[in-house]
Design brief:
Number of strands of chain B: 9
Strand content of chain A: 25-35%
Structural class of chain A: alpha+beta
Oligomer: heterodimer
Largest interface: A-B, 25 and 26 residues
Number of helices of chain A: 9
Protein name (chain A): aminomethyltransferase
Number of helices of chain B: 3
Strand order of the largest sheet of chain A: 11-12-13-14-10-4-15
Radius of gyration of chain B: 13 Å
GO cellular component, one term (chain A): glycine cleavage complex
CATH topology of the largest domain in chain A: Gyrase A, domain 2
Largest sheet of chain A: 7 strands, mixed
CATH class of chain B: Mainly Beta
CATH topology of chain B: OB fold (Dihydrolipoamide Acetyltransferase, E2P)
EC number (chain A): 2.1.2.10
GO molecular function, one term (chain A): aminomethyltransferase activity
CATH superfamily of the largest domain in chain A: Probable tRNA modification gtpase trme, domain 1
Helix content of chain A: 10-25%
Radius of gyration of chain A: 21 Å
Distance between the termini of chain B: 28 Å
Shape of chain B: globular
InterPro entries (chain A): GcvT, GcvT/YgfZ/DmdA, GcvT/YgfZ_C, GcvT_C, GCVT_N, TrmE/GcvT-like
Largest sheet of chain B: 6 strands, antiparallel
Chain lengths: 384, 123
C-alpha cells in the first residue's frame, strides 16, 4: 500500500520543522502531527469526517498559528497599501476586515489575505507557506516610512461552527475599548480588540469553513490557556487540518498553492469581487494593467465547482475532459463529508464553465462523469 | 488457514490455493476514513507487486499491492455501498479481493503475524 500525501510546499522543504505555541497541547490531546508549511501541525484528532461534521453542527477549534500575522503602520499607510492591494483600503472603516490579494506585476496571485483596519494600523493575515515571500514583497513595495511588523510570537485560533458564538460568549470577553461591540454583536468581517481577563485578544468574525465563527489572535504564551478554555466548552472540539481542508472545499473557498498560484489571475479564479469598484476605475495597484484587461476581455479559463457521480474522488492534477478534448484541470478535490459524495474545484475553459455543463474527469485511466455546479457546495452561514 | 503480511501493510489469508487480501488494521488507522474502494475485475490476472486496488480516504488515494500473483477469484462487493468496512473490519469483513495463487512459493517472502507486529512497532 502506498500513500501520496500532498504537502503545501514540497519544493521548499525546510531544513528543520518548527514548532508552534500549541504543539504540546495538540500532542497531549492525541493529535496526529504532520509537517505543514514548515511547522508541525495537527492533521486530525478523532478522524476527519467526525471532526468535519462536528464543526458543521457545533463548534470546532482550529490552530492556524502557522499563518503570518503582520501589522502595517505609519503616515499614509492606507494609500501605501493600495499600491500593493486591489482593495479599497481608503474606504475600509476601523473595525472592518476585507479579503484581498497580493498580485505580481503580471497579475498573478502571490497570495490571498485578510486585511483589517485596526484604527491606528492595519492588520494582515497571510498564508503560512508564503509568509516569508509576502514579507519580502511588501517590504519591497511599501515606502520606508511604513513600518511592517511580523507578529511571529502570536498564535491564531479559529473557532468555527453554528455554536461558536455561544462557546466564545461563555468566556466573558470584555471589549478593550468602551463602546465597542461585544463579541456576540460582531458581524461577519468585523473585528475588535478584547480582554479575556488580563489577556489581550484580537477577534474577528470570520473564518475558512463557510460557518459563523471567529478568528482570534493571541500572544503565544496565552494560546494554550485559551485553547484549553474554549475546548472546555461542551460545544467545542479541537479540529485538525484535514477537516479544515474538506470544510473550506465545501464552502467553495480557494486554497493558495492549490487553487491559486502565481500562474492564476484573480479574474479566472473568480475573485474579481476583491477588486473594488473604485480601484477598477482608477487602477494604480501592482498588476492593475493585466488584471483590468482580464476584467474587460474575459479570461480563457474559469475556476468552477464540479459535482462528481459515484463515490470515487478526483484529486488535484486530474484532467477535465469534454469528449476527447482536455478542457481543464482539477485543483482541489475530495470526498464531501456533508454531502456524502465527491466534489472538486477545477479551472476549465470559459465555454465549459456554465452551470450544468456535463464534463468528465480522468482518474486512473477511468472517466468519472462530473457536472459544473455553483459554489459554495454547502451554503455559507455567516452572521451578517 | 494461515495469514501473512507485507511491509506495505497488506494481509493475505490463505486457505488451499486461494488467498483473501486486505489492508491491515494499522493501515486503515493511518489512512483514516475510507470513502471509496476501487476493486479489480474478477477474472483479472495480477502479478505480485501490481496495484489492482485503490483505497480512497478523505485525504488521499492509496494503492493496494497484491502480495501474490494469480487470478482474481472474487471481489468484496459489499464495499461498493459500505467502504467504511475497511475501517471497521479491516482484517475480516473489510477484505478486498480473493486471488487464486499462481505460485504458492511467493508466500515464503511474506511475514507472519509476530514479524509484522514487530515491524509496525519499529515504525
Amino acid at each position: 500500500m502506498s500513500e501520496n500525501f500532498e504537502t503545501a510546499n514540497d519544493d521548499e522543504a525546510p531544513l528543520e520543522v518548527l514548532t508552534l505555541p500549541l504543539d504540546g497541547w495538540h500532542r497531549q490531546r492525541g493529535a496526529r502531527m504532520v509537517e505543514f508549511a514548515g511547522y508541525w501541525m495537527p492533521v486530525q484528532y478523532e478522524g476527519i469526517i467526525a471532526e468535519h461534521l462536528w464543526t458543521r453542527e457545533h463548534a470546532g477549534l482550529f490552530d492556524v498559528s502557522h499563518m503570518g500575522q503582520l501589522t502595517a503602520s505609519g503616515e499614509g499607510v492606507a494609500s501605501a497599501l493600495e499600491a500593493v492591494l486591489p482593495a479599497d483600503i481608503a474606504a475600509l472603516k476601523p473595525g472592518r476586515q476585507r479579503y484581498s490579494l497580493l498580485l505580481s506585476e503580471e497579475g498573478g496571485i502571490l497570495d490571498d489575505l485578510m486585511v483589517t483596519n485596526r484604527g491606528d494600523h492595519f492588520y494582515l493575515v497571510v498564508n503560512g507557506a508564503t509568509k516569508w515571500d509576502d514579507i519580502g514583497h511588501l517590504r519591497e513595495h511599501l515606502p520606508d516610512e511604513i513600518t511592517l511588523n511580523h507578529l511571529d510570537e502570536h498564535g491564531l485560533l479559529a473557532l468555527q461552527g453554528p455554536e461558536a458564538a455561544e462557546a466564545l460568549g461563555a468566556l466573558g470577553l470584555k471589549p478593550a475599548i468602551a463602546g465597542m461591540p461585544e463579541v456576540a454583536e460582531l458581524k461577519f468581517m468585523q473585528a475588535a480588540p478584547y480582554f479575556w481577563g488580563e489577556v489581550p485578544l484580537g477577534v474577528s468574525r470570520s473564518g475558512y469553513t463557510g460557518e459563523d465563527g471567529y478568528e482570534i489572535s493571541v500572544r503565544g504564551e496565552d494560546a494554550a490557556a485559551l485553547a484549553e478554555a474554549l475546548c472546555a466548552q461542551p460545544q467545542v472540539r479541537p479540529i485538525g487540518l484535514g477537516a479544515r481542508d474538506s470544510l473550506r472545499l465545501e464552502a467553495g473557498l480557494p486554497l493558495y498553492g492549490h487553487d491559486l498560484s502565481e500562474e492564476t489571475d484573480p479574474v479566472s479564479a473568480g475573485l474579481a469581487f476583491a477588486i473594488s469598484k473604485r480601484r477598477r476605475a482608477e487602477g494604480g495597484f501592482l498588476g492593475a494593467d493585466p488584471v483590468l484587461a482580464a476584467l474587460a476581455d474575459g479570461t480563457y479559463a474559469q475556476r468552477v465547482g464540479l459535482a462528481l457521480e459515484g463515490r470515487q474522488a478526483a484529486r488535484e492534477g486530474a484532467l477535465v475532459m469534454s469528449g476527447d478534448a482536455e478542457v481543464g484541470r482539477v485543483t482541489s478535490g475530495g470526498f464531501s463529508p456533508s454531502l456524502g459524495r465527491p466534489i472538486a474545484m477545477a479551472y476549465v475553459a470559459a465555454d465549459k464553465a456554465a452551470e450544468g455543463t456535463a464534463l468528465e474527469i480522468e482518474v486512473r485511466g477511468k472517466r468519472l462523469p462530473a457536472k459544473v455546479v455553483t459554489m459554495p457546495f454547502v451554503p455559507h452561514r455567516y452572521f451578517r | 488457514m494461515t495469514t501473512y503480511y507485507t511491509e506495505d501493510h497488506e494481509w493475505i489469508a490463505v486457505e488451499g490455493d486461494t488467498g483473501t487480501v486486505g489492508i491491515t488494521n494499522y493501515a486503515q488507522g493511518q489512512l483514516g476514513d475510507i470513502t471509496y474502494v476501487e476493486l479489480p475485475a474478477a477474472g483479472a490476472t495480477v502479478a505480485k507487486g501490481d496495484a489492482p486496488c485503490v483505497v480512497d480516504s478523505v485525504k488521499a488515494a492509496s494503492d493496494v499491492y497484491t502480495p501474490v500473483s494469480g487470478e482474481v477469484a472474487e471481489v468484496n462487493e459489499a464495499l461498493a455501498d459500505a467502504p467504511e468496512l475497511v475501517n471497521t473490519e479491516a482484517e475480516s469483513g473489510g477484505w478486498l479481493f480473493r486471488v487464486k495463487l499462481a505460485d504458492p512459493a511467493e508466500l515464503g517472502a511474506l511475514m507472519d503475524k509476530a514479524a509484522y507486529d514487530a515491524f509496525v512497532e519499529s515504525l
